[in-house]
Each structure stands twice: as C-alpha cells, then as structure tokens.
Amino acid sequence: RKEVEQDPGPFNVPEGATVAFNCTYSNSASQSFFWYRQDCRKEPKLLMSVYSSGNEDGRFTAQLNRASQYISLLIRDSKLSDSATYLCVVILYNNNDMRFGAGTRLTVKP
Amino acid sequence: GAGVSQSPRYKVAKRGQDVALRCDPISGHVSLFWYQQALGQGPEFLTYFQNEAQLDKSGLPSDRFFAERPEGSVSTLKIQRTQQEDSAVYLCASSFFGTSYEQYFGPGTRLTVT
User: Fold this and answer.
1) Most B CBs within 10 Å, among A34, A43, A98, to test the B interface
2) Are residues A99 and B55, on separate chains, in Cβ contact within 8 Å?
3) B106 contacts A100? CB cut-off 8 A
4) Residue B107 to residues B5, B13, B67, B104: CA-CA distances in angstroms?
C-alpha cells in the first residue's frame, strides 16, 4: 500500500463547478500536510498548507481528518486556469522527506 | 528574485554512461532536496542537505546514485552507469530551513536513458 493515495482522475468539470479531491495517508505519525499544484511539464508549486482546524484561501478549502487519516481539497467556482494536477503531500513528524501522492488531474472546460 | 535553477534541462544518456545534474538553489536557503519523478507519478524523495551536510539519503535507489553539496549552495546529483529505469525528471527544491518552510522547486532535468 502506498503511503499517500489519491484518486488519479481525471476530473473533467465545467467552469464554475465545485470539485473535491481526497487523499488518504497510511502513517499515523504524519504531522504536516500540504496541497501542491503541478502544471503539465512544470515543477510543483505550493498551493496551501492543511491545518487541523481546516483552512480556506479564496476559492480553495483544505480539510484534515486525523482520525480517518484523510485530507481533502475543495475548489469552488472552478476556472480554466485551475486545470492542473493536484498533489497531496505528507511529512512525518521530525522528518525531512515529503511524501507525495501520485496526483489528481483536473481539467476545467469552458 | 531568482528561483531554483537546474541544468541541463534535458539529458539523453546511453545506458552505462555517467551523468551529473546540477541544482542552484535560492540564495540563502539552508535546505536542499532532490526528488525523482516518473511519468504519471508524484515526486519521490531522494536526499536532503542542510547546508553542506547530507542528513538523509534514504531515498537514493541504489549506490549508483550520489549527491553532494560541498559548499552548502550548489548541489550535484550524479548517477553512475545509468540504466533505463533511471529515466525520469529529477527535481531539486530548496527551502529556508527544513520542511517547516515552503519548498521551491526548480524546473527539473528530464533524463532519458536509451
């Protein structure tokens, strides 16, 4: 079983739609969580950190459920520019290596 | 300011050749990370430097892989006797300090072993 698992998609949604991605992690010692965005043939870029209380940044909302070892990302009012692969990232406590999921591909269509 | 740069951007090597991939991190960033990203997969951790010290090399897939950062800035990832399974994008990232700070990724080096 992979340490970080994501639905690979692809998710194809119309502009303005709301879309949600899920991610599960296997190591209960995981302490830090992030969502990264990666455009085709580009490097990953930090989208947002995920806090225990949940957090929101504009149209993006991230949530963490430690009991279920589950992270989610909600995108409201999708834009064409949101088309990308979204990577779930987990860091173990006191560890310097980031464990990435394989990514969920999103395509937003006009 | 300048971001993380990597060179070369593309490298084609014949099986058995040695390759060296360079990473120039953001100036002042203490931490430097190397990742390997296969097609359709997320990046896989290879190794981590804090200044010139290689603190974690647990992700290096074999002893053919070697990384260094002798002066605490530029880093080189060397792959000896390349194999076809080494074909991937090699990403370098730097952060101010550790994983508590945002990691900034370079554009990657796409290595193809024929």
Assistant:
1) A43
2) no
3) no
4) 7, 19, 18, 10
Of A46, A96, A100, the CB nearest to B43: A100
Nearest to A101 among B42, B98, B102 (CB): B42
Query: Is the CB of residue B30 less than 8 Å from the CB of residue B49?
Result: no
B40-72 confidence digits (pLDDT tens): 899 999 999 999 999 999 999 999 999 999 999
Q: Which residues of chain B have a CB within 8 Å of the CB of A91? A: 99
- Which tokens go with A86? 């979204």
Residues forming a β-bridge with B91: B35
From the list B41, B45, B108, the residue facing A98 with the nearest CB is: B45
Q: Kindly give the confidence (pLDDT) of every residue in chain A, 110 residues in length, as a single tens digit, with 9 standing for 90 and above.
A: 678 999 888 999 999 999 999 999 998 888 889 999 999 999 999 999 998 888 999 999 999 999 999 999 999 999 999 999 999 999 887 677 789 999 999 999 99
Q: How far apart are CA B44 and CA A4, in angstroms?
A: 11
Q: Mind giving me the DSSP string for A57-92?
A: ETTEEEEEETTTTEEEEEE-S--GGG-EEEEEEEEE
CA B75, chain centre distance (Å)? 8
Q: Cβ A103–B106 below 8 Å, yes or no?
A: no
pLDDT tens figures, A80-104: 999 999 999 998 876 777 899 999 9
How far apart (Å, rounded) are the C-alpha atoms in residues B8 and A50? 34
